[in-house]
Give the backbone structure.
Amino acid sequence: MSGTTSPSASAPPPFGTVPAPHMVVADAVGATYGPPRTEPVAPLTLHPFAHVLHYGSACFEGLKAHRGIDGVVRLFRPDRHVARMQRTAELLCLPVPDEALLTEMLHTAVAANLEVVPDPPGALYLRPLLIGTEPNIGAAAAPSAEALLTVLASPVGDYFTGGGRALRLLVETQLPRTTPQFGEAKAGANYVMALGVTRRAKAAHDVDQVLFAPGGDVQETGAANFLLLDETRVVTRALDRSFLHGITRDAVLTLARDLGYAVEERTITLDELLGWQGEAALSGTAAVLSGVGTLVHDGREHAVNGGEVGATTTRLRAALVAVQRAEAADDHGWTVPVAT
Ligand SMILES: Cc1ncc(COP(=O)(O)O)c(C=O)c1O
């Protein structure tokens, strides 16, 4: 034995595997939420008849709090994440939390876990979760009359292992990620529907993600939005109900416009994707803006930007990260300091 630490022993824990010590919880009866309370993270007590366990009444959000270079911890676009959770709750017939309640719970969750907010490039990932808890296995066709809302937290580093390496995607043209009318919902069921496809793609092609392009309509991957880029343009699919309206996507498009790029929100066809002479990237709270180097389709590999992360991707990622860390002016009012 040399006595040195092996690379695997020193590698940071995988994204989302380390719970922060405190969670914030609020219970709802009917449409009304009770006051939030802060508790040590611990297993939840659920009746085995709980609606969520049988009928999938579960949704979540994912956002980050970043420590700025000035030491202040700020939430990134909490208003947009709250609004998206309200929309998802409405789609799943769960009680919609008030903006003020969920916003307060986000701030409390960060303040209660302040000591584990990592320095950049790490961040505190926040995971609001809403589940139907009514103990009634006869309620298949009825909303849950009780619900539990909690905000969990986890100190995180990179989502994709391997630092800034260019990602490999399998392009899936047969199967959709989820059902079209629920694509915009951040419901757990959407993720489990995509799981089998993603697992098979990883095993067969060693890819990082699946890019869903049902019928040749390029939409998003299992955990991020998809963009094509070059020296002058950023192209991504126009919003509709079929895929998740990423808040990072919106931020990247806004920064791209600020920097003088033309932004095209429209349909991307399979032919355009495979023939693209430029860069490709994934955007998301976890993915930030990650370059794509390879597309696998029909058993063939297509290099994107020579297999490398592109210059426009790198530039836009740096612009986004600079706002999140308070290294650049927050011209759009995206960052909100957490009161401590
Ligand atoms: C399916 C899917 N699409 C897109 C995104 C990106 O959304 P956001 O930028 O709001 O994190 C996510 C989450 O990160 C996601 O799970």
